[in-house]
Amino acid sequence: MKQKNSFKYDMLDFDLPEAKNDILWIAEMAEEVYQQSGGSVIIKIPFQAQKKEVFVPDNSKEKKYYYMEVKAYDDAIVRCSISFGGKFIEDNNNPMIEWDPSLKQEKLYVTKNKNGWDIVDDNKVVRMKVNNIKKSVKKWSNLHHEPQYFFNATMFPDGIIAVPFMANDTFTPGIVESVSLGFVERNGKADRCVFALYSEYNEKFAGTGERFAPMNLSGKTIILENTDALGVNNRRAYKNVPFYISSKGYGLLMMTSSHVRLSLADISTRAVQALVEDDVLDLFFIGGGDPERIIYNYRRITGFPRKIPVWSYGIWMSRMSYFSAQETIDVAKKLREGNFPCDVIHIDTGWFKKDWQCDWEFDEERFPNPREYIKNMHEMGFKISVWQLPHVSAETKHYNIAVENKFISKLTKRPEESTSNFGDVEYKGVIDFTNPKAVEWYQSLLKNLFDLGVDVIKTDFGENIDMNAEYFSMEPKKLHNLYSLLYQKAAFEITERAKGEGQAVIWARAGWIGCQRYPVHWGGDSSSTWDGLAATIRGGLHLGVSGFGFWSHDVPGFHGLPDFMNNWSDDDIYVRWTQVGVFTSHMRYHGASPREPYNYPNVSDIIREWWKLRYALIPYFVKQGEKVTKTGYPVIRALLIHHPDDEYCWYIDDEFYCGDVFLVAPIINSAGRRNIYLPKGNWVDFWSGDLIEGPVMLKDVYYPLERMPVYCVAGSELEVYPYIVQHTGEIDFNKTEIITFDHTYKGFSKSILGRVIKL
User: Could you give the CA distance from residue 41 to residue 200 in angstroms, rounded to a whole number?
Assistant: First the structure.
């Protein structure tokens, strides 16, 4: 089988029928660099059309000139923006941007040097070097073309870390593996653009959203296009974020809502390159050195996670689905009678007249007096969460109103392409959140629920829209990925208006740039298997590197195998997944079969003790959650965030930090065995109190089902509530106590926690 040119076909899609007449335009060396009065710098760049067969200049076409604008923000962010015909969204109207008030634009200056130009800031720190020196080359064969001199520049986002554009990724002129800057023209207009940065041979990458792949993404090509992933063991992802961090000490944010193809040292092993399906390119080079500072600077551009209520850190109980008020009351009573602490009962698809047919109203027969029902649940210490989705069914009373007022996407001439099926319900359109009046209408539906006493909305789906429909103010290809942000923003803001600042939370699945502002996001429909658990953890760790601070998952996995609805979780998976849940920011039980612990009698006593531990740790989670809203830290953290200089930590995706204190090494097999890596530092075994010095690899460690490997940073302090409670409302935060992990700590059983928790 003959190998095709990877760049030409795998990156540019030149082998597709619709690309028959596409033309690649490649940027050549800058011709002029000059200062703007507002403090930015402009780079004048010539672009040359390339011949179709081999990418060499097509001199029958005149060069085109485009202008790159360079801006700097504080001392760690440089932004490069260029339009090939389209318009940028104004920053003040860009829903993906939420500038931190402390982030100020720096004035830039241009100085000439022997190789081109330096772009410097007020402190004379070089933030970008632009090259325009061409070397003389001897033409050694008539069979080869003269070399091309591509756009050549190096970014210094924080004045320290050098991030070069990949200017000469060639075998010989005409045979290119990436181009530093370019665009593809279709029918006389720019259709998509490309760029490439130099990747060192041992450079590692993480982030890009909820990847279910290994921690180091080097060598992978990723499609950043939201979709229903249908599990967690494939390339698809519910949450994509065009942002990554590099082991070199920088991050890159591609400010776009369009689909992106990102190749991390894959199509070319010496280039990070991307194709953006848009006619504008807006790149934020983010410095800061260590990962937390890079993520912090990312959040200063796109927004910090909001503060969330204390009760949300409690346990959420759900399944697909409870179908009546009485059923949930029975569950609530059994949890209380069994001394299983819990804060939230979630009602999934079954609270409407017809299962899955969302009309934002409780069925009058099965939920006869929702206001009184919710009041009674509140008196028992339970908050109420309800499921919904952003689609409108023709079978509901809302449909005609939505169509008449253009609250939903306008159907195409092919209605069969404008429908979605959930359960056995057919939906005709998605709510058009680009229409302000549609947002108000949707929020009014949620307000009615809040007025009844509902506490939280599950903003399910949002990954897909009808790509053939018309929307109020945005074309589908730019709305698709952005839809999740507009959807969640609408839901979170009405929740906040109803509940108060710091008391709002949603439960969301899809994600894009900026969605981290509206917690909480969960990991989607994982299988209740060991590989489902492993991939779930991977997704959460990558998401934490991608700017998200709070994250959850379905304990103990969503669906069974091979029978989706009827294969229950194995007892050991139920316990091991619970143990992971205790150390993630939010903890919800949900699945296609029952998930209540009393339905797993062989292990229910173990589960009860782990739930008690979770509630003892609530003060710690509240403190860590507050830190998330002000820094670059997520609650659960890949080891690379704390140990970026430890190359091994860039490969570890089955251990994680839980906040500042804990290092957690989940057991992901029935044997109860695993290797455990402890990075540099001193560690205290949470169970035994033993002091261990890292870095060290602990080989083939065995843990019985009752326990999971947990280590604490030596010298750290842990705030706990060492009393038995049934829900967070019973916690008196004035009575919290401190455990210090030093020579005084003699192990869990001898601690204040060991007196009330039997693990």
Answer: 28
